[in-house]
Amino acid sequence: MARNRAIHNDRVAILLLPKSEASNVGDHGEGEGGSVALGAVVGVLERERRKYVATFEEKAEESRGKTERVLVLPYDTRIPKIRIGTRQADLLRSHRIVVQIDTWSSASQYPDGHFVRNIGPIGDVETETAVIMIEHGLSFPTFSRDLLNELPERERWEVEVEEEEKRRDLRETHLVFSIDPQGCEDVDDTLSVRHLKKGVTELGVHIADVSHFVRPGSLTDAEAQRRSTSVYLADRRHDMLPPVLSAHLCSLLSGVDRYAVSVVWKMDQNYDVKSVWFGRTLIRSRYKLSYEVAQQLCDGAAASDIRGDIPELLNLDLSQQELEKRLEELRGAVKTLSEIAHCLKQRRGEDGAVYLDSFEVKVVMGEEKGTANIEDLVPKQHLDVHDTIAECMIFANHWVAKKIHSSLPTSSLLRRHPPPSQTRFTHLRTCAGVRGFQILTGSNKELAESLDNAVDPHDPEVNKIFRILATQAMSQAEYFSTGSVSSYHSTGSSVHSTGSSFHSTGSPDQFSHYGLALDYYTHFTSPIRRYADVIVHRQLLAVVEEEKRGEREREKLPGNVQLAEYCQHMNSTHRAAQLAQMASTEMFQALYFSNHEREDERCVCVGVVYAILTKGVRVQIPRYGVKGVVYLEDKAGLVAQPAAVSEAGHCSVAFASGHLKVEETRVTVTHPAGQYTLTLLDHVTVRVGVEVSHAHGPSIRLYLMSCCTVDPRERRSPLFTSDRGRKEVLAGVRDDLQSKPVEAPSLSSSSSFSQTPPQSSLYCLVQRLHNLSLQDAD
């Protein structure tokens, strides 16, 4: 077999095939952006020892309570079937279970493993959420009693006299406030801004002092380091820290005294930095604002319109004059922040910062928890104040990175974003060329300017698609220890060494952040939800204490080797958390459409074609943040005709004999009723359906209804974001369709990934590479 009993994420030795053999595979040897080397696994160097979620086969003979060797189907379609011994097959056939692989004999087609535990019934929200966490290697059990006993009691905690004496007290002198999403409990950051004498403006970013409560060597620190990050799923949050810290003692809530670590700049009238101060502070936030309220303040909303949305003002017995005075003070601070942030963003843009985009949605849940009671999928609205807060946080992270690197050149924790490989931009350039735009990618500045210029005033989704494709082309940002970066640098990647035999401070280019256009960057502003920020706080405070007292505080910090190991763990955990969040959103998107599948007005959407595949096209639906494949040819070789819609609003997908002509930027379908062509960036009308699988989770399936949509030059955004818009699209499709509904075979519900093939040949490897080529770049 081409993979020789290797499983996904195993470390393997491979034998590259000669070019003469690779040439026999035709165009399967060519991938997007260049040639793909072909090879075969000749040995497994290290197995990934992990547990897998699996399901018993749906149709199987009853075991009658006897222990039998049965095959289970892993949730991950990249993993082969696993043979286990159990007597519970009949009882758990409708459940998800956890299994582990033990061995894989060379004489066996499948690996052998054992049953670990039952998760729960298939389709239950709690079960499927647990599956997502397990499949991404994330474990967030209840915090232990011993760990909780280390922490202060919430009700009895108060500011310590010793801490009050050694911290800069900002409680009475500064207007401190936070701006966060509605309902946010773990408030990491607050801000302040003051106008001083001689045109000087003081900007302060004040971050929760988690390091005061989470001490090195404690159980809390060990558990936070293991978790590394909080995980935000569509309907819940898994915290890195216990609630007594994350939602209370560390959270910078309004009206209570809190410990903070602050960065305070003094700026001139052009917002150039004249001085900067780092240190521990004592703050009392006056307002906990939502993004929406902060935006209303910037937009000049009247006091009567927003007082009810500011809890700190709601219950105060204030005269109208006093209320206006307080609101104007707050409004002035938010507006000044906005001006500073706009200036900072403009400067980064001039240096080549790349502003990316995405179609994000919020899952609105019903009151009944633990069920698939999803009321709506709401597109996240971008506000100017989002940029204001982001720029202030980026600014603080940048200055802290410079500070710790100047004092700890071989053991500071930074975050870098290597330049992406130029070949990864091929598809973006092709898409842009369809609309006559040229995307230059020689540098981040060229890319940023090209994206800014690639705007179609009649079709705003096009620029979003370009920025999404640019996002997919990016390399992954990562944490690293500055002492473990090699001086060798090639094609946007850097070599890491965690061994003690290698130490190098590397070059500044290797430390830089491509997307943000900054020479030094780190994470400092979210210590409640990221362990990297806790380490950076410790490094910054050690440097500050050394400067103040002259003591060797850095000796208490982790050295380069240990820090590099932390970074490796944090990078993998953060990536897993991101993927779990995406999987959770996709699951709830599928559940939403499964609840409304026959209500076609909700399921009929306008999408944008953003990729041409061998047997279909990839489509992005801005309204719901959904993307998927519209198959134009099924496994039987039949081609798709636009769906027919009945007067009742129901539609059926018709497949008939015909053929596809696939080109780089378009696909032409010829069928008995005529011919149609889909080109990159075309707008098409699709029906969103859900494919249910016994062994795997529900997944979105898109079906072509019509190639004809409202002309982009004539449409407006509400057409695609409102119920009225969906009705108009559906009515337009019904008018466009001339043919009657045609009964046709549906697409197979089997996965696009096969389990372990029974035969061993080069064809298996080629087919595998072909399947991989159909997957998203991200």
Automatic annotation (TrEMBL):
Cofactor(s) demanded: Mg(2+)
Coiled coil: 313-347
Location(s), subcellular: Nucleus
Domain of life: Eukaryota
Nuclease in keyword set: yes
One Gene Ontology molecular-function label: RNA binding
Keyword Hydrolase (UniProt): yes
Keywords: Coiled coil, Exonuclease, Exosome, Hydrolase, Magnesium, Nuclease, Nucleus, RNA-binding, rRNA processing
Recorded family membership: Belongs to the RNR ribonuclease family.
Protein name: DIS3-like exonuclease 1
